[in-house]
């Protein structure tokens, strides 16, 4: 991944040098608000000559959640009340290359860096019965997931890599000299090295608890390797719409 990121940044630097040798840098600035896979975002955009555009900003996923229940008995007792919510927070830097001085279509390379969390799941076991110290769920011969004394536990669906190189295409310029307002559309992929479920797992032999990724090896291969296969897909699809307002 480091080699891939180095190639992207070096290519971007060469493009910037060749396209702006005789052009004025950052002679305009726009601010944009957007929405996409990474949540709500705020970006600043500036032209780097006529063929390049630099955008930097940050993203935040509002804690919007969806409640549901699993492992509930037929009589309605027991079960886990779960709530899954968006959880990504991070920053990004994008460099757009336009094939022509007046074209809207662009190629984009960049990087997204953040907490890597796509979803966070909070769970509460409904009925602790006599086990007021919490309940445990075995996931292998010696590993288990425990709730706290109130029946609460937490898990995250997150990328393995927290710094993700990005490549994509799109339409629109953040700095439109003919209009105060402009819309930019982006679609592409981030290289994430895969995804997985992360939670606190306790070793019943040593008593140690560690926030770790659930893997096929961790659950003694009971899934026939399916967890690792699903989580090994290295790309995160990204789509975003950003509305820019030219400041000057």
What is the fold-level CATH name, i.e. the topology? Answer: Porin
Q: Order the strands across the largest sheet as they lie in space.
A: 1-2-3-6-7-12-13-16
Estimate the strand proportion: over 45%
- Write down the secondary-structure element order: HEEEEEEEEEEEEEEEHE
Number of helices: 2
CATH architect. name = Beta Barrel
Provide the structure class: mainly beta
Overall pLDDT confidence: 84
Radius of gyration based on Cα positions: 23 Å
Morphology = elongated
How many domains? The number is: 1
Low-confidence blocks of residues:
18-23
CATH class annotation: Mainly Beta
Kindly summarize this structure in a few lines.
The protein has two helices and 16 strands. With 248 residues, it is mainly beta.
Characterise this structure.
With 248 residues, the protein is mostly beta strands. It has helices spanning 2-19, 226-231; strands at 30-36, 39-48, 52-60, 65-72, 78-86, 89-97, 105-114, 117-125, 136-138, 143-146, 152-159, 163-171, 181-191, 195-203, 209-213, 235-246. Strands 1-2-3-6-7-12-13-16 form an eight-stranded antiparallel β-barrel. Strands 4, 5, 8, 9, 10, 11, 14 and 15 form an eight-stranded antiparallel sheet that branches. The chain has two helices and 16 strands. The two termini are 38 Å apart. The protein has one domain (2-246): Porin, CATH 2.40.160.
């Amino acid at each position: 991944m480091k080699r891939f990121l180095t190639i992207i940044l070096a290519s971007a630097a060469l493009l910037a040098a060749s396209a702006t040798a005789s052009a004025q840098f950052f002679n305009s600035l726009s601010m944009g608000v957007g929405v996409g896979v990474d949540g709500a975002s705020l970006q600043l955009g500036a032209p780097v000559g006529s063929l390049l555009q630099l955008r930097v900003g940050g993203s935040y996923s509002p804690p919007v959640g969806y409640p549901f229940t699993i492992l509930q008995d037929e009589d309605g007792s027991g079960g886990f009340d779960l709530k899954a919510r968006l959880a990504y927070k991070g920053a990004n830097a994008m460099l757009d290359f336009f094939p022509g001085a007046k074209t809207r279509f662009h190629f984009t390379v960049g990087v997204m860096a953040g907490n890597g969390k796509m979803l966070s799941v909070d769970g509460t076991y409904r009925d602790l019965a006599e086990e007021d110290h919490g309940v445990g769920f075995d996931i292998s011969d010696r590993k288990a997931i425990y709730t706290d004394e109130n029946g609460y536990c937490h898990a995250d669906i997150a990328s393995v890599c927290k710094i993700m190189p990005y490549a994509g295409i799109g339409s629109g310029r953040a700095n439109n000299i003919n209009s105060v307002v402009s819309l930019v559309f982006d679609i592409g992929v981030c290289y994430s090295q895969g995804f997985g479920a992360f939670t606190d797992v306790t070793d019943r032999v040593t008593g140690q608890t560690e926030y770790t990724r659930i893997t096929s090896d961790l659950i003694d291969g009971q899934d026939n390797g399916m967890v690792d296969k699903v989580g090994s897909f290295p790309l995160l699809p990204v789509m975003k719409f950003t509305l820019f307002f030219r400041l000057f």
